[in-house]
Design a protein that fits this description.
The relative contact order is 0.12. This protein folds into 2 domains: 3-145, Jelly Rolls, CATH 2.60.120.10; 161-255, Winged helix-like DNA-binding domain superfamily/Winged helix DNA-binding domain (Arc Repressor Mutant, subunit A, Orthogonal Bundle), CATH 1.10.10.10. The radius of gyration is 19 Å and the shape is globular. A hairpin with a 2-residue loop joins strand 7 and strand 8 (105-106). It is of the alpha+beta class. Helix 2 (123-132) crosses helix 3, helix 4 (163-178) crosses helix 7 and helix 5 packs across helix 6. It is 37% helix and 22% strand.
Length: 256
């Protein structure tokens, strides 16, 4: 089925055309818990949606009816204050899951950073799949454990690290998140803006720009355009981040 066919169906793909076996996200997503002989069972439950850059998938407080798995592109999740201040709580890539909720309401908003594709499951359907295929539920438990560990890392970063440590930690964690999806493990193709980075780290845009300029001047990184960063000295980046040499983030373990 062509992209135009998908668009005409409002993001839907008929079950027989679902390309699960060829999906690049499968190895790191919840559906990867199923073998090739079982993955066809998802055809009856999933809806594939295309989300344009800057488009909201859902808003904080909306009634939660679906879980989503990112299969292409990148998304951000965030919370907003009444006066428009925003705290980004995460950046999501291929294989990541979102839509976990609190009291049947989404606990955060989700927006596409770039043109993205998500697989959408109704909550009742996914719960049924978890019952029928316990390996999928086990994957979700590991995923939640990883997210909890990442949340603790983020609380420490926001509360105790200075601007240089925050920026270096951000780049170091992104390097570990993205390295298995890139031929060059030191080239980061970051889909987010400087404003997004600032809203994630609790900094101003000016501080983000000044810190990146200093790291570039010191030979730690090289910036290419607005979104690409070459890490020239990985050990210096790690030292600036204040991260132990043997530390490996939970999200990197999941991606591996």
């Amino acid at each position: 089925m062509s992209d135009s066919d998908i668009s005409a169906l409002g993001g839907r793909i008929v079950p027989g055309d679902l390309p699960c076996l060829l999906c690049e996200a499968r190895s790191s997503a919840v559906c990867g818990a199923l073998g090739e002989d079982r993955i066809v069972c998802l055809n009856d439950y999933v809806v594939r949606r295309r989300i344009g850059a800057g488009e909201r998938l859902f808003d904080e407080g909306d009634r939660a009816g679906h879980y989503f798995v990112v299969t292409e592109g990148a998304m951000t999740v965030f919370k907003e204050a009444y006066d428009g201040r925003r705290q980004i709580t995460g950046f999501l890539y291929s294989g990541d899951m979102l839509g976990l909720n609190h009291h049947q309401r989404y606990a955060y908003s989700a927006e596409a950073l770039s043109a993205s594709v998500v697989c959408q499951y109704e909550i009742a359907d996914l719960n049924r799949l978890f019952r029928d295929y316990p390996e999928m539920e086990h994957w979700l438990l590991r995923h939640c454990s990883d997210e909890l560990a990442s949340a603790h890392d983020q609380m420490f970063l926001l509360g105790r690290k200075n601007a240089m440590e925050k920026i270096a930690s951000f780049l170091w964690f992104q390097m570990h998140r993205l390295k298995l999806r890139s031929r060059n493990r030191t080239r980061l193709e970051l889909p987010m803006s400087r404003r997004d980075i600032a809203d994630y780290l609790g900094l101003t845009v000016e501080t983000v720009s000044r810190t990146l300029t200093r790291m570039r001047r010191d030979g730690t990184i090289r910036t290419i355009g607005k979104h690409d960063v070459d890490v020239l000295d990985i050990e210096d980046l790690r030292a600036r981040a204040g991260i132990d040499a043997d530390f490996r983030p939970a999200t990197a373990e999941r991606a591996a």
